[in-house]
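fold-stage: in
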Amino acid sequence: MARQPVLLLLITTFIGGLVGGMLGEWLSLSGELHAQKTNSVNAEEFLLIDQNGRARAGLGLDPNGEVGLVLTSRDGSTTLALSPDGLVAVKLTDRSGRVLWSAP
């Protein structure tokens, strides 16, 4: 008689663990928007920082979802911006934001 409650407990524990594991796997997969490749890095923004902590280059998306690459000179006086989604694809500006050169 003592073996039946123990056997019932073992079977219940096994089934509960199996169902819980499957449910946990299903919940963790349902939160993913897409599968991530094992040899890739996904981010909304990448920054290249110099030794002083200043961002010298950045690749990312603006609030409108347009992609852009920004490169800044060592002294911060000029910025080169590339954005295939914008009206101007390539733009060179000075520190004040004045456009020095641009190309459509």
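fold-stage: in (second)
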Amino acid sequence: MQIPVEGQSPRDRAIERIAQEIAIAERDRVPTSRQKLSQLVTLNLAIAPAEASKIVDEYCDEKAPGVPQYLQAEFESPFLKVMAIVNSILGMASLWYGAHLWRLQKVSWHWFVLGAIFVGAAGYSWFKTIQQEIAKG
């Protein structure tokens, strides 16, 4: 890690910090994104978010084109939570409709199976969300 020079401009310090973070991410085999780098520059170097994003984009376009704008991990957990809620609603609705048909003495077993599948998918989605939260530390 290099020691920052007193006469460096904030832009130069930001570029140096971006390069260091990309090198650390590659060394540790940890994914990084332009959004994460922009937030890091904003917080650590007190640069405006718009300027930080611009600096990160310019640097990544020139020297690290493989760094994505966003990571899947940044939105995968909320997506799984939404899917868990949607599947549980669909499962409960299917089970309710199956019970309604059963009271009317009509064939309803397939609605119970469908409801169980949806509730199972909801439980699995929620379980994967919890696993991701534990893995984040």
